[in-house]
Amino acid sequence: MNAKADMSTDTRGGDLISAVSGQEVLLCRDGTLYSPALHLLVVSDLHLEKGTAGARQRRFLPPYDTRQTLMRLAGAISRFEPRMVICLGDSFHDGKGSGRLDETDRLHLVSLMAGRDWIWISGNHDPDAPGSLPGSTVHEISVGSLTFRHEPVIGTSPGEIAGHLHPGARIVRRGRSVRRPCFATDGERLIMPAFGAYTGSLNVLDSAFRGIFGGEGLVACMLGQDRVYVIPRTSLVSG
After folding, report:
1. Can you list the residues of the chain whose pLDDT is less than 70?
2. Rounded to an integer, what distance in angstroms lies between the CA atom of residue 56 and that of residue 51?
3. What is the 3 state secondary structure string of 21-33?
4. Of 156, 167, 200, 214, which is most buried, counting CB atoms within 10 Å of its CB?
């Protein structure tokens, strides 16, 4: 499948209409993915409570990442009103993160979960179910023709939507370098950008992505302020 040919900009909001193994999805400029046919919202690598985790190790960060991340998530949920939300792992920065939630943040999160199916995918940072929170915790789940897991598998995996690697893309235009988080896809499978306020990104040309996307089929769907930009493999720069 030629992933680039199967993408078009949705002029209603700058999001990108794409397909993963034939299933139409919307790649949103906030870093979420929405499937209209499945009424499904997907978000990856929230890393909630990363600020408090750092403080416990004497790495002091402003403790507002959870609130900021939840506010952004609330915006996506309000926009789409999904029947199901899938969090693709590393939703909390460590296994005890849910227990450190401020009560206001906990109640906000619970309110976002109310009335919809909420799936926590186990991540390497949070392999167990988050305590005191509703929802179902699974290692992976298939919905329609799509399979959702935290870490992408090596080799072919049609329909896979994964997280973990925090993909980012770098381009150089007129001597100016731009690097932004991105969706990484070849049309058959897709890796989500990290959604958390304190998360970084890893260049999609890094060796960690080797063996996931075939040949020159990789396309980076870069998150811009106003829209998602389709960047072919030949325009990507390492570093």
Report:
1. 1-12, 53-63, 215
2. 9
3. CCEEEEECCCCCE
4. 167
